[in-house]
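Model the whole thing, not chain by chain.
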Amino acid sequence: MPAMSAPVAFSSPSAAFFAGAKTAVTSVFMLVLAGTYIGIGALTHDFGLSSWWLAISTVLVWAAPAQVILITTVTTGSTVLVWAAPAQVILITTVTTGAALFEIALAVTLSAVRLFPMVVALMPVLRGPTTRLRDLLLPTHFTAVSMWVESLRLLPSIEHQWRIPFCNGMSAGYMATAAVFGFVGFYLAAGLPPLLAGGLLFLTPMSFLMSTARNARMMLDKLGLVLGLLIGPLLTILDVNLDLMWTGLIGGTLAYLVHRIREATT
Amino acid sequence: MNPLLMELWPYFLMVLVGYLPNEVWRVFGLVLARGLNEDSQVVVWSRAVATAILAGVIAKLILFSTGALAAIPLSVRVIAAVFGFLVFLGARRSVFAGVLAGEIALLAGGFLFSH
């Protein structure tokens, strides 16, 4: 166990910040993020949103699943709203997108539920005896799968007072990587032959599928993944409203029940 | 609607139906971090729901593709995804190896069978 060795210390908060940033750009998640955001950049181009829209959403939303939901639904629901000139068309679509906007927000918020337990688990690791609430605001916003996995792995070996700047530096490194590769994917998709552009769009589902499968250690997570893969398309074919929400509630609850029954019987 | 408003509309939507419904869970987590632990039943259930939603998004992106990916036949997309996943499992759960294998299969199949 590395716990025997002395905890890592830094000379200043900025030294800790840059050490964190360096960790980010040399980690394996850098490749996963680059692949994911090249794919999301291509997707953004495909759905007719701008590259700056994507960059700002990367900084503000900072959650690839929510961003994918947002990109693929905001435009299909509101293309007419964004581009149309005739007033009556706008009026009609505003009425219909009222429901659509609610559905998008619901899908985004359900996809983001997983951030809640991550923050809950991370805060005790970051918090020291003198930590103020406002010091935790930035790490809270930065919480996402990649940063969370690496934080729980690396922070325990670092002295308490340097953990927050280290974590912020690492997260900023990940976010900058994502933002840059979002632009790369966007402009690659604009100039590539169709087959390669299709290959870029394929990056998002593939990297999601495998990073989710890799994080799925418990039967609960594996079952949730498999059920979601089956129920999602089924509800789409059946043309069910709020299909993503139902996919989550049905698939997730079934997985949870199986998990509870297995726990009760063992 | 005036042109400036139309220009800003996608950004407004991003904040309204993207940023806010996403960020609320992080803020909740910060506020309630003391009350709950990772093993509590509500947390376990919500993690399963979140995983299933993400899986639904993944399946939809592969099966009901849009744009350039839609030009590649459905059978090629599905076979490439399955192949990539098998390589991922075979390569000791390497995301990099799996994505690379899936991409190669997709491009090869797309090259041969696209219209």
